[in-house]
Design a protein that fits this description.
By secondary structure, the protein is mostly helical. The chain has one domain. Helix content is 68%, strand content 0%. It is built from 17 helices and no strands. Helix 8 packs parallel to helix 10 and helix 9 packs antiparallel against helix 10.
Length: 284
């Protein structure tokens, strides 16, 4: 499978997944469970970690990778004192159901949902060393096509994300260095990456380590070697994310890309997603 197509599918599916973390319906469901909603993090950590079960902060920080362990510890395991993971998962689907119904014709995504599920089921057979993908692979599928589409998008993005962590580890980039090196190539302003909870001292120390490897200039921008290393990380991430799309096949993947255009435009046009983000893929 062409890695350009693999990356395109990520760009198309990521906004459909990410809507859940920003939609008013999600905050309403979170509040009903008892989570604070003055900021998005109490519900974010609950929503995203719930498939892992009532795990502690070390396991969540390990899987999420780029978040400061200290930040994770502020929300996990306290999240499970508010609501059990099973209740969180049920509320998550209710929130997605309401969000999607408000944005587009959910009856029109049946074919896309079927194709996305086929790709996601292939990802579910490729979960060795991929804790978040494996956790989502064990969840039952919803009945409604629009919920199947969201579940598939979510499993596929966590499958890719797990592979991205492997690529970062292979490149010798620890969690803080992963963010510093990404900011250094201009993926997003450093202020955007502050959401991951690293202190100024930790950020500076990561900068110093990368500079010592010849990956950063004195002003914090990437050297040529730094850019090449990040390009290698992205190339390897795409390669590691190719299994589901190779299984789906070239024609079916192209058809899914075509079908996702409408929902993608609805997600982008919703105004819910931040223009600048830690993913570096534009409006996601």
């Amino acid at each position: 499978m062409d890695t350009a197509r693999v990356r395109q599918m990520w760009h198309l599916l990521e906004p459909l997944h990410a809507l859940h973390y920003y939609a008013p319906e999600s905050f309403e469901e979170a509040a009903a469970l008892g989570y604070g909603t003055d900021e998005r993090w109490p519900s974010y950590f609950a929503w995203r970690a719930a498939p892992l079960g009532a795990v502690g902060s070390a396991r969540v920080a390990s899987a999420f990778y780029s978040f400061s362990p200290a930040m994770v510890g502020r929300y996990v395991p306290a999240a499970w004192e508010v609501a059990a993971p099973g209740d969180v998962l049920a509320a998550r689907l209710r929130a997605v159901d309401r969000t999607y119904r408000g944005l587009f014709d959910v009856a029109g995504v049946r074919e896309a949902a079927g194709l996305a599920r086929r790709a996601a089921e292939a990802a579910a057979s490729d979960t060795a060393g991929r804790p978040l993908a494996a956790a989502h692979a064990e969840l039952p599928w919803a009945d409604a096509p629009h919920l199947v589409l969201w579940q598939a998008a979510t499993l596929l993005r966590e499958h890719r994300g797990d592979g991205h962590v492997a690529a970062l580890l292979a490149a010798g980039l620890d969690p803080a260095e992963a963010l510093v090196s990404f900011a250094a190539i201009g993926a997003a302003p450093e202020a955007v990456f502050a959401s991951r909870g690293w202190t100024a001292e930790e950020w500076a120390a990561a900068r110093e380590r990368l500079a010592g490897r010849g990956l950063l200039e004195g002003d914090g921008t990437a050297t040529q070697a730094g850019r090449e290393l990040r390009a290698e990380v992205e190339r390897r991430t795409d390669e590691l994310a190719a299994v589901p799309w190779a299984a789906l096949g070239t024609d079916a993947t192209a058809r899914l890309a075509e079908l996702l255009g409408g929902p993608w435009l609805a997600a982008i046009g919703s105004g819910l997603l931040p223009a600048e983000n830690t993913l570096g893929i534009g409006k996601v």
